[in-house]
Structure formats: structure tokens, C-alpha cells
Amino acid sequence: MASNPENEPTASREVEKPPIEPIRLPMVEEMRGQDIWNNCAVRSVVSGVMGGGLGLMMGLLLGALDNPIMQDEMTGKQQFIYQAKSMGRRSWSSAKAFAVMGFVFSAAECVVEKARAKHDTTNTVVAGCVTGGALSAKAGPQAACVGCAGFAAFSVLIEKFLDRHD
What we know:
Helix content: over 70%
Radius of gyration: 26 Å
Mean pLDDT: 86
Number of helices: 6
Order of helices and strands: HHHHHH
């Protein structure tokens, strides 16, 4: 005999809801940790250090891809030494650039967020503009404007991409 869903009681067809759990208040240690992380100086320094680490890894990767012009005339030992020096130079250069970028972006975003008392895309736009303008300011005002616009647009795209995948 086939079961007839119309004859079954309606209670068995309802989806059971998970029990409601009480709200847990944060502990003192958690609140202190949040207070430390909300400090702009701490956030900026951590971002600078993490950016430096990322730059170091990027430099190692990209430095390993360099090929010497005189590769055919170099011995294996000379090629190894050349490659190691190239990786070291590229790593140090990338580490400095990414550390400054991370520090400036994080500091600008944190200051703007504190001043506006909001966490939204506007903070990212302003922080990106400040970072891009500051990094390209040595090349003149036109380069600073282009850097501002480019970094702000890139920052918004990255934030939208990351928000979509949360």
C-alpha cells in the first residue's frame, strides 16, 4: 500500500526549527582583545608587518623567475648566485613596498572609520585614494591623482569581491 501524503498529519511535514540559544555576552578578555585591535596604531603596524611578509614571499617568487641575460655563458654556480641575489633584492624591495602600502591603507581606513563612526565602502574608497596618492606623490600631482583613483577603484573591487564570498 502506497503512502498518501495527504493522509499524514501536518505536524510531521513541518520542518523542525533549531532551538533558540541564549545570547552569550563577551568575556573581559574578549573585550580587551577587541579594544586592542580597534586601536589604529596597532592595526596599522600589524597590517604593515603582514604586508611586508606578503611582499617578501612575492619577491621570492618573482625573483626566482628572473633569467640572466648571459645565461648561456654562466656556470651553474654563477647562475645560482645570480638567482639568489636577484631573489634577495626583489624580496627586500617588495617587502618594503607592501609594508608601506599595508600600513598607509590600514591607518587611513581606521582613521576615516573612527571619524565617520561607520564601516562601509566609503572608508575603503578614501583609504585607497590616500594610499594611491601617497605612494605615487613623488612623480607629481598628476601621478598622485591617477594613483588615488586607481587604488581607490582597486580597493572597492577587492572589498566587493571579498564581501560576496563571505
